[in-house]
């Protein structure tokens, strides 16, 4: 049997993403040992019961002592507190990475707490579901999906290479980006769509009684697809919007202008404007299907 990529992987927070990493790493034999550091006794018990980790608990001194890769999978608003908790216990030479949905804020909040003896390779798998917790994960989650890494200049290429190998072994393709660029791209591809879904579903829930019943009854006409996105974890999304403020506000501004243009076209009966716009958007959908990202 070949030597695994890592001796010990420690997953900080055993939610949807990190429990999927645990399953995929097990399936592909990427670590000799997988452990999790999580404050919730129930989450630790679940992870052990599922057999996706070899050890679980809330003591960083115990769980980080042997860790060669530490993968932080908590909401992005918790990164400073996580950094404070793990920083003093990291093994010299360890790689610290994360899966947070924003990158500038993670670098700002986590990096200052890491000792110079460790390598920091921030990351973000562009894969997920609206479900949370250790039971929601599955080994195939990252298959055929992109994972964006945002290492800072001067990061040890060997550390970047090992994180790249981890994600490619789990089925992902890798793109390297600067953190600021990542946050702008994700503001349009992920954060704005989630905000729109939260808005539409909020608008529907504010409707008066009868109309609200009909929204549920006839939801298959489009609304239903938004409710799936709007069912995503409230803490995770609170933290994303608070920590990608600039890029999200910028994209909301552009979106509002475009919405106003469509509103105007409807008001003035500009059939051609509407048809041209809808033809262009349909082409984007086709491009996503062609890129196998549907
Ligand atoms: N869900 C998705 O589609 C995607 C999510 N991400 C990112 O991955 C990260 C994890 O998301 P996901 O796995 O979905 O989340 P989950 O809600 O499934 O899991 C979150 C984990 O973080 C722990 N946690 C929550 N708050 C804190 C805190 N204050 N301090 C320490 N630990 C905490 C939870 O612990 P406990 O067991 O105590 O609840 C849990 O283990 C987030 O940063 C998210 O932005 C990235 C790509 C996709
Ligand atoms: O992390 C995000 O921003 C989203 C959720 C699913 C994939 N990306």
Automatic annotation (TrEMBL):
InterPro entries: 6-PGluconate_DH-like_C_sf (IPR008927), NAD(P)-bd_dom_sf (IPR036291), PDH_C (IPR046825), PDH_N (IPR046826), Preph/Arog_dehydrog (IPR050812), Prephen_DH (IPR003099). It comes from the Bacteria. Its EC number is 1.3.1.12. GO terms for biological process: tyrosine biosynthetic process. Pathway: Amino-acid biosynthesis; L-tyrosine biosynthesis; (4-hydroxyphenyl)pyruvate from prephenate (NAD(+) route): step 1/1. The keyword rRNA processing does not apply. GO terms for molecular function: NAD+ binding; prephenate dehydrogenase (NAD+) activity; prephenate dehydrogenase (NADP+) activity. It holds the Pfam family PDH_N. Residues 7-294 form the Prephenate/arogenate dehydrogenase domain. PROSITE patterns: PDH_ADH. Keywords: Amino-acid biosynthesis, Aromatic amino acid biosynthesis, NAD, Oxidoreductase, Tyrosine biosynthesis. It catalyses: prephenate + NAD(+) = 3-(4-hydroxyphenyl)pyruvate + CO2 + NADH. Belongs to the prephenate/arogenate dehydrogenase family. PANTHER family: PREPHENATE DEHYDROGENASE (PTHR21363), PREPHENATE DEHYDROGENASE [NADP(+)] (PTHR21363:SF0). This is prephenate dehydrogenase. It comes from Magnetospirillum gryphiswaldense.
């Amino acid at each position: 049997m070949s030597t695994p990529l890592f001796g010990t992987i420690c997953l900080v927070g055993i939610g949807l993403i990190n429990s999927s990493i645990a399953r995929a790493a097990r399936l592909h034999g990427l670590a000799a040992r997988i452990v999790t550091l999580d404050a919730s006794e129930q989450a630790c018990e679940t992870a052990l019961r599922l057999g996706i980790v070899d050890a679980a608990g809330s003591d960083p001194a115990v769980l980080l002592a042997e860790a060669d890769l530490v993968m932080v999978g908590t909401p992005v608003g918790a990164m400073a507190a996580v950094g404070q908790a793990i920083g003093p216990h990291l093994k010299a030479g360890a790689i610290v990475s994360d899966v947070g949905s924003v990158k500038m804020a993670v670098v700002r909040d986590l990096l200052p707490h890491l000792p110079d003896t460790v390598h920091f390779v921030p990351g973000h798998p562009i894969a997920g579901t609206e479900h949370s917790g250790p039971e929601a994960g599955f080994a195939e989650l990252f298959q055929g999906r992109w994972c964006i890494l945002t290492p800072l200049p001067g990061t040890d290429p060997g550390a970047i290479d090992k994180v790249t190998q981890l994600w490619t072994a789990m089925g992902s393709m890798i793109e390297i980006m600067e953190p600021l660029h990542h946050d702008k791209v994700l503001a349009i591809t992920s954060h704005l769509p989630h905000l729109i879904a939260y808005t539409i579903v909020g608008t529907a829930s504010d409707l008066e009684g009868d109309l609200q019943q009909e929204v549920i009854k006839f939801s298959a006409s489009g609304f239903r697809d938004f409710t799936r996105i709007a069912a995503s974890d409230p803490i995770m999304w609170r933290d994303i919007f608070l920590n990608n403020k600039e890029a999200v506000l910028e994209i909301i501004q552009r979106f509002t202008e475009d919405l106003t243009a469509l509103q105007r076209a409807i008001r003035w009966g500009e059939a051609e404007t509407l048809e041209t716009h809808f033809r262009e958007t349909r082409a984007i959908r086709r491009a996503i299907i062609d890129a196998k990202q549907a």
